[in-house]
Amino acid sequence: MQVAAAKAFIGRMWDEEVIPELTRYIRIPNKSPAFDPDWAEHGYMDAATAQFAAWASKAITGIDGAALDVVRLEGRTPVILIEIPGEADDDVLLYGHLDKQPEMTGWSEGLGPWIPVLKDGRLYGRGGADDGYAMFGALSAILALKAQGVRHARCRILIEACEESGSYDLPAYVDHLAPRLGRPSLVVCLDSGCANYDQLWLTTSLRGMAGGALKVEVLTEGVHSGDASGIVPSSFRILRSLISRVEDEASGELRLPELSVQVPPGRIAEAKAAAAALGSAVWDKFPFVSGMRPMGDEPAELILNRTWRPTLSITGLEGAPEIQSAGNVLRPATAAKLSFRLPPTLDADKAGALIKQTLEAKPPYGAHVSFTLEQSASGWDAPPLAPWLRASIDRASEAAFGRPAALMGEGGSIPFMGMLGEKFPDAQFVITGVLGPHSNAHGPNEFLHVDMGKGVTLAVAQVLADHAAR
Ligand SMILES: [Zn+2]
Question: Which neighbouring-strand residues pair with 93?
Fold first, then answer.
């Protein structure tokens, strides 16, 4: 691959087509079904799917034998499948998603989830970076190779619309489309993160997740807290004590030994190398209030906390009024949404069952306690890197950024990677992305770092070329 020509091609694609398309896409509030149960009636998911399909159909006209299908199984979110023939007799699967996280509060003045703003090389708005750019990046990379006549394998680009809900629709599509997906020897996933914007970051593991709603009921209606406190146990206190069964509230460590795994020595070494490269950037990227410190001061330990250790976040609370309208009432119930991140190699279903059993056992004072599990998803640990790919990611990173690639686990989850790892145990994985410092996917002020997007696209082109030539 001629790097300069590919870089120019990809830069032009991004500036003239990808950015304008993503700008339109950010305006569509196509939240993932978990956050918009009426997604089908609302029609936003269909609008985003139609927009993506229209652009990609146009982009592949002129490629002999290329095809695009919007596939819809009854009652499920749609997927887009793009098939591009290749010169090498081998299969590559490139994956991304177009559904979005919900709005979240705290967006800065002038910004908002459905308001695209291009400023200082960043395209702000929900879904541009997570993960709208993936289809455009993947296809641009392939087109850059076509433009130079560089050989690549058969490519399938699969874009789903259920990822932020745990990809529960995807297994049915993978079965349905199995004959058309081939047996990929390389999987490219553009839905992950980067620890800086200066090089290509390869994700070597992903955490799994389990979670659900924990509800504690103590009364059939609220009562005067002066009258009842001391006699009626507080639902909040019971909730607190139940959570302490699974989490040490002082350290944040999870108390159930079954939720931890032995971290492989290679991954510990990798975390140390990443820590040496990143230093305080491991925590600086978070918008701490002044005087606030991270959970430890060893960067490598913090990286392992984030990538290989189980953690709990309380992501939602119910049963209490806003503070300004809170009277002196002993409330009847308190509920919290518990979101557990799990080590990459842990069975998430078993972990979820254990958590449920622990929380529901012997409720204090006979309170009504229920933990309603949501869909859980196991994590993923990369197979050993093949020598050709190890060399290729450095070549790709040098081409795009002038620096070698870096490797690190990610703290987030991409449920499909676990499924694919099981289905195609011999495949190599390139999991990378543009979710770097401050890009804030899922939070306010999410942005797509445009140069990182171009760099990742060029890197994918290089890896596809190396894959066919290996
Ligand atoms: Zn994503």
Answer: 156, 187
Distance from residue 34's CA to the centre of ligand 1 (Å): 14
The pLDDT tens digits of the residues spanning 212-243 come to 999 999 999 999 999 999 999 999 999 999 99
**94: DSSP letter:** E
Ligand 1 center from residue 98 Cα (angstroms): 8
DSSP states of 325-387 as a string?
G--SEE-SEEEEEEEEEE-TTS-HHHHHHHHHHHHHSS-GGG-EEEEEE---B--EEPPPPPH
Residues of the chain predicted below pLDDT 70? none
d(CA 454, CA 460): 10
| pTM, to two decimals | 0.87
| The predicted structure's pLDDT at residue 285 | 87
Distance CA 121, CA 10 (A): 16
Partner residues linked to 54 by β-bridges = none
Ligand 1 centre distance from Cα of residue 194 (Å): 13
Question: Taking a C-beta distance cutoff of 8 angstroms, is the pair 444, 105 a contact?
Answer: yes
- State the number of CA atoms in the 13 A half-sphere of 328 facing the CB: 6
